[in-house]
Amino acid sequence: MSEVKKSPSSKLLDRTIANIYAQSQPGGDSSIIASKKGLEILVEALNVAIKLGKSEYTLYNSDLVPYQMLIMRNEESVDKAYWKKLQSPYTDKLPVDRGHLYEPTEYFDFGISNTADLEKEITLKDVKYLSMKKEEVMRITLGCIEQGKKYGFPQKNKKKKS
Predict the structure, then answer these.
(1) CA distance 105 to 85
(2) Which of 16, 30, 122, 143 is the most buried (most CB within 10 A)?
(3) Residue 19 parent element (H or E)
(4) How far is CA 55 from CA 109, 113, 143, 154, in A?
(5) Residue 110: what are its φ and ψ, rounded to 5°?
(6) pLDDT score of 10
């Protein structure tokens, strides 16, 4: 079996790989499969969030596409609006009795770290910032996909002729 030749940039990125698989249903398992460096970055991100209340780190999936690991700490009781308005990790369905649910990234992008923040009005400036951030992430992702194609990633399955 021949070894796949990797570009220098992909060798560097291999050290920061962390695939994170979410729960598919209530009570379902969640999994992390990562390189040692990817796990070290996750530990550092968790420690920063414990100390400062939130953290944001860049990691790469095994297909070398970058993503932001966003971590927030909240010490409020689970019966507070902060937790009740937060979307469940395993569903995007909207329960009728809970009104609008926020995605975790919305909490992070709008600086919602507690129930008092949740009750503040979101301004047009906040909406513009979020829009710009999403455009930036899309540009970075598309750039990485193009860079990966340049070096032959992801590998295409080629069938041998008999």
Answers:
(1) 13
(2) 16
(3) strand 18-21
(4) 12, 12, 24, 30
(5) -95, 5
(6) 53
Instruction: Provide the token pair at 37.
Output: 């460096």
Residue with tokens 């990633």: 153
What are 62-108's pLDDT values in tens digits?
888 888 899 999 999 999 988 888 887 766 555 556 566 777 777 77
Of 17, 32, 107, residue with least CA distance to 62: 17
| CB contact at 8 A, 84 and 95 | no
Position 133 pLDDT exceeds 80: no
Question: How many Cβ atoms from other residues are within 10 Å of residue 60's Cβ?
Answer: 23
Give the DSSP H or E segment for 67: strand 66-72
Report the 10 Å Cβ neighbour count for 55. 19
Q: Are 73 and 83 in contact (CB under 8 A)?
A: no
- Whether the per-residue pLDDT at 13 is higher than 60: the answer is no
The vertex-103 CA angle with 55 and 112, nearest 5°, equals 55
Measured in residues, the chain has a length of: 162
Note the pLDDT of residue 2: 39
- Mean pLDDT, the chain, whole residue set: 75
- With a threshold of 0.85, does the pTM exceed it? no
